[in-house]
Amino acid sequence: MPLLTEPNLSGRGKREDLMDMIALVDAKDTPFTSMARKGSKPGNMYFRWQADQNPGPTIGGVVDGTDVTSGSYNNFVTGYRKELANYAQIFRQTVRVSKLTQDIADVAGIRDELSDNIAKAIIAIKRSMEATFTSNQLGQSDNGTTNAYLTAGMLSWIGGDNIGTGLNIGSGTTAPSFVTPAASIVTGANASALTDTVVQGVLKSIYDQTGKYKSFDAIVGTDLKRAFTSLLGTTALTTTAYNGVPSGGGTATNLVAGATKVQTFQRDAAADTFIQSVDVFQGDFGTVRLHPTTFLGTVSGSTYTGKSAYGLVLDMDLVEIRYGGNVAQVTALPDNGGGPARLIEAVAGLVVGNPLGFGKFEYTAA
Fold first, then answer.
1. Domains and CATH numbers, the chain
2. In terms of pLDDT, which residue wins out, 239 or 90?
3. pTM of the predicted model, to two decimals?
4. Among 74, 133, 279, 336, which has the minimal tally of Cβ within 10 Å of its Cβ?
5. DSSP labels for 334-358?
């Protein structure tokens, strides 16, 4: 009997101890599609809506007893209203598992391989929607051959005009422009240049357009989120200094040590927990709630590039996603011997009510 102890088995008939679990760490949030309102089902892949403005103040009075002249009438429809439009887009994933995988193989941590694949395909579609709706993708019509329907994303709506073909349609020659003003858009080489003055400037520009103190939701890349947190402390550092510079010019002498690095924190110095995080920025013209994301980026053809130093300042009351039918419809495909297959498909398009009420950050790097 002692020969049957584990060290003497030498691998004969031994089974590995594989735990019945799979560790999954990829659980990234999709804040934009989660917060956006669900609009009505689009009646067509090309759908339209109207943006409007109110008239500004009129200075001066009216002479008593004067009649209204034919040239004094206003038309607050053609003069202030404009039609905007976008396309819906088809999002698709297909999955298949072999017959042996589905019926015979016993995989640790998975009860049903086909169901697990379908669940992941639905997640993939939602992430594709998130990346598309927040990108700079332009709208595009389906030509039946090489071009598919594409919905224009938020980065292209904020600051863009005539997005795609026929997406920003004027209502007469006097129709106003609903292009986001340049003051609502921040560009720069490094997100480290972000200051509270820069953020206040974006909020002020949006307020100049809307006249409302609002609570905004900002979808921000991870580097831009860090830049917001850096607003908590200020750093000053001079590494070297000189004295003894000749009055008539020439080479400086007596290189000496620079100033000491100084950093200030907005917290109690006696606190035993170090907390340095900005989740809400409250300014003179609005409050911004920060939502970090890894799905903010740009599109060039079929190539997607993540932009961790980008950010969108959004009034979610002006945003909705219009879904065509089920958000993710699962359809069984024919099994011709290779194993069961499923089609997971969704149709959705983005509505940007009025681009004047938004802002964005486009920093090149951290």
1. 27-51+79-365 (3.90.1690)
2. 90
3. 0.80
4. 336
5. P-SSS--EEEEEEEEEEEES-GGG-
